[in-house]
Amino acid sequence: MRIGFLFLILLMTSGVSAQTSENTGRIWDTTVHTSSTPFKQWVPQQQLEAFNMKQLEINKKGMYVLSSWATGNLLYGVIAVGLTHGEGQAFHASNAIWGGFNFIIGATGVAASYQKKKSMGLSFGGTVLRQHGQEKIFLINGSLDFAYIATGLAVWGFSDRPASQRTRNILSGGGKSFVMQGGFLAFFDWGMYIAHSQHAFRNLNRYTSGLAFNGDGLSYSLMF
To answer: Could you say which of 36, 54, 77, 184 has the lowest number of CB atoms within 10 Å?
Structure first.
C-alpha cells in the first residue's frame, strides 16, 4: 500500500532524476527544482491548514507565557529597585531590563500568531520549510540560553574580586539575574522546541520520510 502510494508520487512529480545506487538497495531520488518546477503537493490542503493553525496556536500560547513572565519581571523589578539597595537593587534592575526586552519579543510573537491569513493556502513545501524554521529558532535560542547561564555564573563568581563594593554589588546582582533569566528561557525555548517537534512528529513526519533539502530544492528518496 505504501509502496504504491510512493510510486504514485513519483509519477505525479515532474522534473525528476532517477539514480541507481551501487549499494545493496536501489534508490530512486526525486528532485523537485523549486526554482523552475512547482512542488507537486501530495497532502490534502485541508490537512496542511489544520497543521499550520495548530502551529500558530502553539506559538501563541508560548508567547503568552513569555509575555507574562516578562511583564512580572518588568513591573516587579521597577518597583523593587526603589525599595532595595546594593546587590538586591542591581538584581531587580537587571530583571527589569530583561523583562522589557522579553516583553517586546513576546508581544511581537503574540501579534504574529493572529495573522492566520499567512498560513492559509501554504503549500506542502512551504509548510515543511516553515516547520523546520520554527524548530531551528527554538533550538538555537535554547542553546544560547545555556550561554546566558554560564555568563551569569562567571560574573557572579567574579563579583568578590573588585575593590569597590558598588561594583561587587552590580556584578553579583547582575550575575544572579542572568542565571535566573537564562534558566527560565532555557525551560521555555526547549519546551517550545519539544512542542513543535512533537506536533510535526504526529502530523507531518509521515509525509516527509525520505524528504531532504539540497542546493536545487527538495528531493524525495525511496529505497527498495
So the answer is: 36
Cα–Cα distance for residue pair 199/58, rounded to 1 Å: 9
Smallest Cα–Cα separation from 78: which of 45, 61, 103, 109?
103
41 residue type, one letter: Q
By CB atoms closer than 10 A (0-12, 13-18, 19+), residue 30 is buried
Contact 151, 206 (CB under 8 A): no
Q: Which three cell numbers stand for residue 167?
A: 561594583
| Residue 76: all three cell numbers together | 516587579
Helices (DSSP H) in 82-164: which residue ranges? 87-113, 124-158
Q: Is the whole-model pTM more than 0.90?
A: no
d(CA 163, CA 168): 8
- Give the cell for residue 206: 509521515
